[in-house]
Amino acid sequence: MLKNIMRFYAQGFANMTLGRTLWKIIIIKLLVIFIVLKFFIYGDSIRDLGVDERRDFVLDNLAPLESTFTHKDTSTPL
């Protein structure tokens, strides 16, 4: 059963002319998209930083400044 399914797909891909070209174009486009995303969208990982740089990164991102917690009440009482 599994052998027949594999043979069916192998014959189908072997007989394709336009489809084979389209699949190549699709694969090339996907590779280009993922390469562009990797280099331009996703930044450096924290794994790439040294010990001191990691500590500073975590401290800066997890311990927000005190000014973000202060709230001035500008509303008038009812």
From TrEMBL:
Stretches that traverse the bilayer: 21-41
Keyword Transmembrane helix assigned: yes
Keyword flag Membrane: yes
Pfam families noted in UniProt: DUF4492
UniProtKB keywords: Membrane, Transmembrane, Transmembrane helix
Protein name per Swiss-Prot or TrEMBL: DUF4492 domain-containing protein
UniProt source species: Helicobacter canis
Lineage: Bacteria, Pseudomonadati, Campylobacterota, Epsilonproteobacteria, Campylobacterales
